[in-house]
Amino acid sequence: MTEPTTGPQGLNVQESLDFLREIVRRDTRSGVYGGRVVTRFPPEPNGFLHIGHAKSICINFGIARDFGGICHLRFDDTNPETEDMKYVESIMRDVRWLGFDWKDKLFFASDYYEQLYDLAVRLIKDAKAYVDSQSDEEIRKARGTITEPGIGSPYRSRPVAENLDLFSRMRAGDFPDGAHVLRAKIDMASRNMKMRDPLLYRIRHATHYRRGDAWCIYPMYDFAHPLSDAIEGITHSICTLEFENNRAIYDWLVDNLFREPRPRQYEFARLNLDYTVMSKRKLLQLVEEKLVSGWDDPRMPTIAGMRRRGYTPEGIRLFASRIGVDKANSRVSMDLLEDAIRDDLNARAPRAMAVLRPLKVTITNWPDDRVEWLQVPSWPRDIGKEGSRKVPLTREVRIERTDFSVDPPADWRRMRPGGEARLMGAYFIRCDEVLRDPSSGKVTELLCSYDPESLGAPAKGERKKTTAIQWVSASHAIPAEVRLYDRLFTVADPENMEEGRSFKEFLAPASMEVVREALVEPALAEPPPGDRFQFVRHGYFIVDEVDSRPGAPVFNRIVGLKDKYRPAGSAVKPADRS
Ligand code: ATP
Ligand code: MG
């Protein structure tokens, strides 16, 4: 991804092209496609999109944008059993949300079934395809191995007329599932196993979510995909590396059935992200077995989950542009994704105060009924944004339990017995006395005194060694629910653990922690769902779109802050540990 097209120093994008853009530029210069650039994003509507798809979307739509072309959205819907309109809808929503537009180029492979059937008939007539009546098992056995050639089917030399008759009767519904298949007649001894007479059509008496019962034969992906590309006039068909061996079938089919200039397939490395799984089949299991709350569970690597979690489309696109386009498969650390999200949120999320584990503080020299409304800036100076809100200070406040230590380490900068710290945006207070529960010994309250001269005054002497702490007024604070998310899995690569062990065995036991005693400042009493804030030192949060209510806000932690900003010994579990 190149975003923006012209870099900050006016660096010409042409100087730093990835290998795919090199190819596209070569083709636009040579004019093979008359200057046209047509890419496509071809999901199968059998699940929600995940962050790996986001990479593919950014590449395909990004290349079209950079070269003045267009990217089609095509649903590769050739499996009646698993596909559904609800997935089509979620995919369209997610692509749009990511910021891409397919204009009027929305297609479905299932709209091409007639054309695809006719193309198959042409192959049969050219003696390049035949109906095989072996069982699946026999076909598999006869395919051979990497070192041994396959064995030709006894039906391989069926006469064209017989093939045509059988194929039309397959379509007419004369046979049960599995009775016959249509195969390409290529080379049973090919070193590329994929070229040993690949299957093109199978019988499946099943209802398709768009075509209903109109068809009982369905094209295989390897047949439908290249021919759909050719039908649509795609120029560059970009897919992931595991399809490298399928390229030979792609070329064989398109060469046999279409004229130049025809589409060509190029492969890039799929995204593998640590501590999560990226197969739709596995994500579906998590949803169906209720191991997560749904496709949009904020812990899911789905676009819908990330949207609810509070990730921004800009942050995800930034991540995609940072990981770039690669030809070798590798794993990407979660830190890379979280860094991109943080970098995007830093200038987007105003600061606010929230106390997740409150500790009672009484300011003994503050009058009982006095409320002072302080104007507190919502942005740190380095962001350069204007904006502030009013925060009430009263005699009784709450601070974060982890901002106080009875026996602090040498470099402690926050509250301690006898020590001072500034209430953020307000006065310095000194801890005069620590009250404890007599039976448990647990600290229950701090009795403090404030320095009336310290408001807005620069810190001097010992005070310079301290840091401002968050607080809320006990009488004005709003109770809130705060949800802290951690990694869904305990191991980096849950899909590739020991033989025979399921990825589900590595689900983290506590990947979501719900904090119910949290308090937020009164400006956040009725925050609009979807609004994002940085709760100082706790990280970035979003007002949950589903469960938040006026007066009873619910906040999801999007991502924690970098370690250096995090309080030592914080009870709050960092989301971005590595
Ligand atoms: P499944 O998980 O069932 O194998 P899939 O993730 O391949 O499915 P598709 O709907 O076939 O899902 O994918 C649509 C497009 O997204 C394909 O072009 C595919 O190459 C690309 N894609 C899928 N997963 C990734 C990934 N992890 N990284 C990059 N691109 C991906
Ligand atoms: Mg796939």
Describe the structure.
This protein is α/β, with parallel strands linked by helices. The chain has a domain at 5-268: 3-Layer(aba) Sandwich (Rossmann fold). Helices cover 23% and strands 22% of the residues. It has twelve helices and 26 strands. The protein has helices spanning 19-30, 51-66, 85-97, 113-125, 136-141, 160-172, 221-232, 247-257, 280-288, 303-309, 313-323, 334-345; strands at residues 38-41, 70-75, 106-108, 129-132, 181-184, 199-203, 217-219, 236-240, 264-268, 271-273, 330-332, 351-352, 354-355, 358-363, 372-377, 388-393, 396-400, 420-422, 428-436, 443-450, 471-473, 478-485, 512-520, 532-535, 539-543, 554-559. The strands form seven sheets. Strands 12-24-25-26-22-23-13 form a seven-stranded mixed β-sheet. α2 packs across α11, α7 (221-232) packs across α8 (247-257) and α11 (313-323) packs across α12 (334-345). The longest helix has 16 residues, at 51-66. It is elongated. The two termini are 27 Å apart. 40% of the residues are buried. Mean pLDDT is 94; it is low at 1-14 and 564-578. The structure holds adenosine-5'-triphosphate and magnesium ion.
Notable traits:
alpha/beta; Rossmann fold; seven-stranded mixed sheet; 23% helix; 22% strand; disordered N terminus; binds adenosine-5'-triphosphate; binds magnesium ion
Topology:
Blueprint: H1 19-30, E1 38-41, H2 51-66, E2 70-75, H3 85-97, E3 106-108, H4 113-125, E4 129-132, H5 136-141, H6 160-172, E5 181-184, E6 199-203, E7 217-219, H7 221-232, E8 236-240, H8 247-257, E9 264-268, E10 271-273, H9 280-288, H10 303-309, H11 313-323, E11 330-332, H12 334-345, E12 351-352, E13 354-355, E14 358-363, E15 372-377, E16 388-393, E17 396-400, E18 420-422, E19 428-436, E20 443-450, E21 471-473, E22 478-485, E23 512-520, E24 532-535, E25 539-543, E26 554-559
Parallel strand pairs: 1-2, 2-3, 8-9, 10-11, 12-24, 14-20, 22-26
Antiparallel strand pairs: 4-5, 5-6, 6-7, 13-23, 14-17, 15-16, 17-21, 18-19, 19-20, 22-23, 24-25, 25-26
